[in-house]
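WARN no homologs supplied; continuing
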Amino acid sequence: MSLIRTPPQHRLPIETEIAQFSAALIKEAILREIDRGGQVYFVHNRIESIYAVKKMLERWLPQTRLAVAHGQMPESQLEKTMSEFLLHKYDVLISTMIIESGLDLPNVNTMIVNRADRFGLAQLYQLRGRIGRSSRQAYAYLLTPPKTIIADQARKRLEAIRDCSYLGAGFQLALHDLEIRGAGEIFGAKQSGFIHAVGFDLYQKMLEETVQELGSRRDESQPRAESASDLEPKIEFPLDAYLPPSYVEHPEQRLELYRRLSTSTDEETLARVTEEISDRYGGPPVEAQHLFHYLALKIGCQKAGLSRLELREDYLLAEILLGDYSDWRERLQEVVRRLDGLPAEFSGEIPPTFLLRWASESDWPQRLNTTRDLLARLTHPSRLPEKST
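OK structure emitted
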């Protein structure tokens, strides 16, 4: 991906402020812009009350020239209003979201957005882009209702647009939007999809398989052979497993690391990525260690032919995918006999299940390491130690 981060020459970042609705603030912002010869956008995205807002501003600023623009006006009247505003016959344009696209008026360098908590992040970004289109300093005021607790997501959107006020911050803002709303559906109309229900790793795997299937145009009349590499094991993992923001601060870096971790298809590749992460960001916290273990268990299950792995406080339960190898029963029994100090119980039901009960003194690091060792031994019989005499 190529990013254009270089702004036009002499362009300045827009000063963005989040504030409660205040007559004093509004009058000060408008008069300051008028005093330096500029013009103002006042965005009020409700047509039924937009003329009431105009009357309110007329009472507060009787000497100010005001105009109204919205999408339900006759086309000729709207065009006349915008042309007169362009010619500086008005000081303030009170409008709806109609101004968000296509307008380039270098003389307008102050914007006041009423009820900014009701706008989406992309809408706020588009609106703010209508000012600051010259070498003059621009100001954006995002107003929220006084004495009102706004929703958590609305607060995050406002903080994101405020923090990403520097030039070239569009991609960073898009990543904030991704974290707030979710990734949505790639092949669908929904903008808030099911990624949280299946997890980032499985979602990416499903997307990759779908793209490959659509691209290959496979003949559905011919059955496709299943293999261990096609297996998506179900892993029940009771520990928090993620990269904390306190460990990897920037969202785009976390997304890139998640992508690299989730596309690791073997333990060697995973080990290189985790070693690089530790080298760049320091020793991983316990949540990141759990994530590395989880991905290693997924790789181990695929290679050993396990369709399910359940980790609990007192036991490990695994289901073996029949047909992956012929000597699964003997191999399991041999592995069980050689796990020193950890009592185990083997069940030969169909599908075969393997139950390992943890010793009472074991802790989670021991359980995770033992599970990874178990999967490696199931995959590579040569790793089994020699029988003791």
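The chain has a mean pLDDT of 80.
OK
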